[in-house]
Amino acid sequence: MSDHAREHVRVAVIGSGFGGLGAAVRLRREGITDFVVLERSGSVGGTWRDNSYPGCACDVPSHLYSFSFAPNPDWPRTFSGQPHIRAYLERVTDTFGLRPHLRLGHEVLMTRWDPDALRWEVETSRGTLTADMVVSATGPLSDPKIPDVPGLDGFREAGGKVFHSARWDHDHDLTGKRVAMIGTGASAIQIVPAIQPKVGRLTLFQRTPPWVMPRVDRAVTAPERWLHRQLPFTGKARRGILWGIRELQVGAFTKRPEVLSLVEALAKANMHRAVKDPALRAKLTPSYRIGCKRILLSNDYYPAVARPNVDVVAAGLTEVRGRTVVGADGTEAEVDVIIFGTGFHVTDMPIAERVVGAEGITLAEAWKDGMEALRGATAAGFPNFMTVIGPNTGLGNSSMILMIESQLNYMADFVRQLGLLGEGRALAPRPSAVAAWNRRVQARMERTVWKSGGCDSWYLDANGRNTTLWPGTTSEFRRATRTVDLGEYEVVRAPAGAAGTGKAAPRGREEATA
């Protein structure tokens, strides 16, 4: 297709989870309607569409795990399940008129920066378009990670069933089956209690035991829901209290990990109430500081693993021989189904391999030594490109929606600044600004429980660096991303007559000024 026949938009958003839909709403609020949301699946929802496994629910309170601009007074429980969160995102899509902007079934195959036309060329599974700016909102929990286990193909050939928790096979009945659950992370501790009563035998492979705290969940009463509908400020107050409590907790994770020993005592008491067997308790007791890995919430995980039809293998899965799974400690079990609850590509996000910047290298190549982005959003060498839930924007104890909304503030001001600069200009973060920001983040990381807690978690990349979490409060991050500091950016300039034409022309750079 010729360049002039391609669809061109001001902004192309990749992904339609909380980040992508939030970006779409914010663009419309900024008066921008010339944008598309590219979604590889057939519906919106992101991780809350993909993760439909039995027992799937959020571990952040409902009234905090929702957009501030789209409160939901009708959450049925204090901690919502996957169907209710997915339905909420569908309502947000309709309420804010986002359907016309959706391009469902459009998987992004490659995104290339055109340094002459100062625009992105976005190749999708349904054709190619161009955009002045790209906002990547694919999220870190979008591409499942399945370890390369020797013999797995042979297990399938022998009639065994294999799937990841984020790609649950609802057509496969687990009743009476011998099941191996691989992993003990956030998904697994919800899956195990949900399937334990129906399976014949459940073998749980646990490389590292998690810390599990009680889940203070209950139904939201009809009077509460009525009050939030009739007096919206009560819902805002509830959200504010939930937020404030979590802000006060941040210091224990980031500055004073030693105080978390009190929380460990509560977690151990939670275990002792449900698990009476000392040998099993020993397997389930972590040897690292609570908070170093994600703290999990459950009232039924420990009772489930203590049931007679559950075996806990305190080792990872290392091999499969026919229908036999083998642990690192030599434990063997005959199984019919293997379920991987082994997480996602977080520090090596696959979308990074599909983004080619100004220097002709992919974002994955630029990040080969670890992910780095200015204020968690923009990467050196990638003009007019922004990531929502980028490097060091994750949280260990609060709602990611708070961080997403902060990044949307930054995105909105970025778009405003581009408008003020006028046609034929793009913004690229200065490498020195990216490096300075990340030095400050990593310096603060040294004091955190994620660095000093004695564990190896999915927060860390291959070099042992935490490129995932934010080492501060959400209010600190909100202040840091309220506006774009033009002093941290270069203006990439196209000569007169070159911008938007696709024709080769000399290029130049100029310092951005406030």
From TrEMBL:
The keyword NADP applies. It holds the Pfam family FMO-like. Its cofactor is FAD. Keywords: FAD, Flavoprotein, Monooxygenase, NADP, Oxidoreductase. GO terms for molecular function: flavin adenine dinucleotide binding; N,N-dimethylaniline monooxygenase activity; NADP binding. Transmembrane segments: none annotated. It comes from the Bacteria. Catalyzes a Baeyer-Villiger oxidation reaction, i.e. the insertion of an oxygen atom into a carbon-carbon bond adjacent to a carbonyl, which converts ketones to esters or lactones using NADPH and/or NADH as an electron donor. Thus, can convert bicyclo[3.2.0]hept-2-en-6-one into the oxidative lactone products 2-oxabicyclo[3.3.0]oct-6-en-3-one and 3-oxabicyclo[3.3.0]oct-6-en-2-one. Is also able to catalyze the sulfoxidation of methyl phenyl sulfide (thioanisole). Belongs to the FAD-binding monooxygenase family. This is Baeyer-Villiger monooxygenase. It comes from Streptomyces thermolilacinus SPC6. The lineage of its organism: Bacteria, Bacillati, Actinomycetota, Actinomycetes, Kitasatosporales.
